[in-house]
Automatic annotation (TrEMBL):
Keyword S-adenosyl-L-methionine: yes
Tree of life domain: Bacteria
Methyltransferase type domain mapped to chain residues: 165-268
Molecular function as annotated in GO: methyltransferase activity
Entry protein name: Methyltransferase
Length: 337
């Protein structure tokens, strides 16, 4: 007993680093919160009551209270009053970290659970075992909140563009953020998903920038034959979408050429994407998983850094450079006209 007390006393003075158990618990609790539909309310950062969250989730208030108690115990929420809470200061970082776990183990669950089937019969298994689109979208958004676009945002703001085009814009979160910071600028959000385009228009209106954002429902490949959406841009951005198009060879090269031709003098093209099997210690493990899953199960071979830069030069860009990225294996390629 004395030994146990001495051990506990000694350990109480040691600041333990975050463990895998911590990360796993936080990810599970945040996914539950997302399934309840309360993460958007929490992310606003304003105090919110048990009643408001229970109504949003359509669950009994008593049960929501117990769940919020668990979030407080996990240091994800802080009480601000009687049955009132706000997110902890590091909530955004927790969302970002959890995105990696959910993407790896939940969004790609069919691949993780059925590797033998895929290795024996890739085509048949791909038809039988499909990823949950919602899991992919949520985990990608959570990773992207800190991992995808900070470098791109910095590079774009430095140009002070009047017209910004985002290819594969999804719900246009990046563009809406940029237009909020650049009140005299306009933007074009191009995406092939009708649902994403509808959400982009709704979100832009809600953010007060709807009159400055044009939403275009088209695949990126269409720019190769009709570059109208990118005409006159100061910045053309694409985030983690070009590694799919690069497999199409000539189409990819034609899209790059059309983008260069459409840019105003001094304009830039900024592509955020990934390279295969990045070797730096901080990124090699996740990059290995990301590279393997894309190559083995999604039929996507990520180009190495030198290939990305070569394709820009072939498209006629005067300068092309690679900027380090927070996302493991991610790179920001900036090409100037």
């Amino acid at each position: 007993m004395i030994v146990e007390m001495e051990w506990e006393s000694a350990m109480s003075h040691i600041s333990t680093p975050e463990t895998a158990a911590d990360l796993a618990a936080v990810a599970a609790l945040l996914e539950m919160a997302d399934r309840l539909g309360i993460v958007p309310l929490l992310e606003r950062g304003e105090p919110v009551t048990v009643t408001e969250l229970a109504v949003a989730a359509d669950v009994p208030e008593e049960g929501m209270g117990r769940f919020l108690g668990a979030l407080v115990a996990a240091a994800l929420l802080e009480p601000t009053g009687v049955k009132e809470f706000r997110i902890a200061d590091d909530f955004a970082d927790r969302i970002h970290q959890s995105g990696y776990l959910i993407w790896s183990l939940r969004a790609n669950q069919p691949y993780v659970q059925h590797p033998a089937e895929f290795l024996r019969d890739p085509v048949g298994s791909a038809a039988q075992y499909r990823r949950d689109g919602r899991e992919v979208a949520v985990s990608s958004r959570w990773i992207g909140s800190r991992g995808f676009y900070p470098a791109a945002t910095e590079a774009i703001l430095a140009v002070r563009p009047k017209r910004i085009v985002d290819l594969g814009a999804g719900a246009a979160g990046l563009l809406i953020d940029l237009l909020g910071r650049l009140p005299e600028s306009t933007g074009v959000a191009l995406d092939m998903s009708g649902g994403a385009c509808q959400e982009a228009a709704r979100a832009a209106h809600a953010a007060g920038v709807g009159d400055r954002l044009t939403v275009v429902e088209r695949p990126i490949q269409s720019v190769a034959d009709d570059p109208a959406p990118v005409a006159g841009a100061d910045v053309i951005h694409a985030g983690f979408v070009f590694h799919d198009i690069v497999q199409e060879g000539d189409v990819f090269d034609r899209v790059l050429r059309r983008c260069r031709e459409a840019l105003r003098p001094g304009g830039i093209m900024a592509i955020t994407d990934a390279v295969p099997f990045a070797s730096a210690e901080r990124e090699r493990r996740f990059s290995s998983l990301f590279t393997y899953l894309h190559a083995e199960f999604m039929d996507v071979s990520l180009p190495p850094e030198e290939d990305w830069l070569a394709r820009f030069r072939q498209a006629g860009f005067d300068q092309a450079r690679c900027v380090p990225h927070r996302f493991p294996g991610g790179r920001l390629f900036i090409a100037a006209k």
